[in-house]
Design a protein that fits this description.
The protein is of the alpha+beta class. About 15% of the residues lie in helices and about 40% in strands. The protein has 2 helices and 6 strands; from the N terminus they run αββαββββ. It has a 6-stranded antiparallel beta sheet with strand order 1-2-4-5-6-3, covered by helices on one side. It is globular. It starts with 5 loop residues before the first helix and ends in a 5-residue tail after the last strand. Its EC number is 4.2.1.59. Involved in unsaturated fatty acids biosynthesis. Catalyzes the dehydration of short chain beta-hydroxyacyl-ACPs and long chain saturated and unsaturated beta-hydroxyacyl-ACPs. It is found in: Cytoplasm.
Length: about 150
């Protein structure tokens, strides 16, 4: 079930093609948790160079995908509505499975801590129920257009 589609996601976060990686949001409890989906397809531009003949989604882009899902969760939290979330730190990132064309990444994000302009989340990217990546991400939340 889709709670948010691509256009609603782009209305909330500033990412655009070719670097908007969330296809839709499955579940959302504002300020608490989100489940989102990224369909990984062979026509993704990064597969041309990573790696020819053995296409694998780069770990940095898995983290970016998790960060985009997390920013949706954060920006749907009542205290952060209408603001922009900036990735401030990546902690304890672990890559356990390769992500390949045809995989469906399920992104599970849980809010750990919220402060005046800070959000910390625990993230997990799964393929077929197996953990591909996990990390703790910290975001700084500012008014749109402010300098961080």
């Amino acid at each position: 079930m889709k709670i948010m589609g691509a256009q609603e996601i782009m209305d909330l976060i500033p990412n655009r093609y070719p670097i908007c990686y969330i296809d839709y949001v499955d579940e959302l409890e504002p300020g608490e948790r989100i489940l989102a989906t990224k369909n990984v397809t062979i026509n993704e531009s990064f597969f041309k160079g990573h790696f020819p003949g053995n296409p694998v989604m780069p770990g940095a882009l898995i983290i970016e995908t998790l960060a985009q899902a997390a920013s949706i969760l954060i920006l749907k939290s009542p205290e952060f509505l209408g603001k922009t979330a900036y990735l401030g730190a990546v902690r304890d990132a672990k890559f356990r499975e390769m992500v390949r064309p045809g995989d469906v990444l399920k992104l599970e994000i849980k809010m750990i801590k919220k402060r005046a302009n800070l959000g910390i989340v625990q993230t997990t990217a799964l393929v077929d129920g197996q953990v591909a990546c996990s990390a703790e991400l910290m975001f700084v939340v500012e008014e749109t257009g402010e300098k961080v």
